[in-house]
Each structure stands twice: as structure tokens, then as C-alpha cells.
Amino acid sequence: MKSKENNFAYIDGANLHKGVMGLGWNLDYKRFRVWLSEKYGIRTAYLFIGLIPKYKELYKYLQECGFTLVSKEVIYDGDGKPKGNCDADLVLQATSDAYENKFDKAVLVASDGDYAGLVKFLLEKQKLSIVLSPHFKDKCSILLKRTGVKIAYIDDQRSHLELAQKEKAPNADGTA
């Protein structure tokens, strides 16, 4: 990609983390950020994530890797599992940025069918480059596939983006 491109990435942090972990590996976020820049000309990479105070070192690390964090306070379900649903925030940010013409093309990192409306909108505006799915082909929502958007699967880049066993991002294993 040419360095003069001004492309933005919109990343569903929970979808990315759970998807890659479900495939049996850990993502090297630093390499992922560089890869996004080199492969897709991403200047700004928004990472939408639920805010849990005990993971402050992880958030600091992600910012150091070059992500712009957009966090939302989490709530806890009946089983004590945190829920920080950021889908609406991601859609609003991407739509607003598109209307304000802040980027040339967008890259969406998610597998969730809730983003099908956003994908259709960005395709109509000729503002969407690709969807990067953190899940296997059969786990990526049929609603996204039906939009006709180009979809690539992050697992295909595992050899480039996997965190080496000896390296670990702060709190990557869920410990403080």
C-alpha cells in the first residue's frame, strides 16, 4: 500500500480476541498493527474494547502498539462474566468518520453479523476495503457473507501474526 493512503481499521476487540483464541493461538498485537499498516495502509486503528480496571497494563500495551482504544465500561451478567458490547460504538464511529470523509477506505475486523448494515453502508459509499474475520470461514456470519464484501481470514496469517510462546502481552493469559 502507498504511504499516502489514509485508511482506518475498526476492530471489535472481543471478537478478535475470542476468535483467535478459539483457533488455538495468541495474536501478537504489535505485529498485527504493523501488518495492518503495511498490507492495508492503515493509519488509524480503532480497537473497541470493554474496560476492566485490572487489565490496565494490557490497555497501555495496546496503545504502545499503535491502537487507538475506544473503551466502554463493562457490566457483568448473572454468571459474573463481563459484557462490554461495543458494536454500536464501532458502527457509530465508522459511520461518522465516513460521513466526515476522514478516511479513504475502511477495514473491519469482526465476524459478527451485527455489522452487516455497516458493511452495506460502507460498500455503497465505496469506503470499505475488506472485512478481516478472526473466525474460521464457517464461523463468519452468513449476514456478512451475503453483503458480497471481500472477506479474508486472520488465521491465514497465523505464521506471521502469532505471538511467540516466550513472549506474552501483559495479561494476555488472563492473569494480572
From TrEMBL:
Gene3D superfamilies: 5'-nuclease. It comes from the Bacteria. InterPro entries: LabA (IPR047140), NYN (IPR021139). It holds the Pfam family NYN. GO terms for molecular function: RNA nuclease activity. Residues 10-133 form the NYN domain. This is NYN domain-containing protein. It comes from Candidatus Niyogibacteria bacterium CG10_big_fil_rev_8_21_14_0_10_42_19.
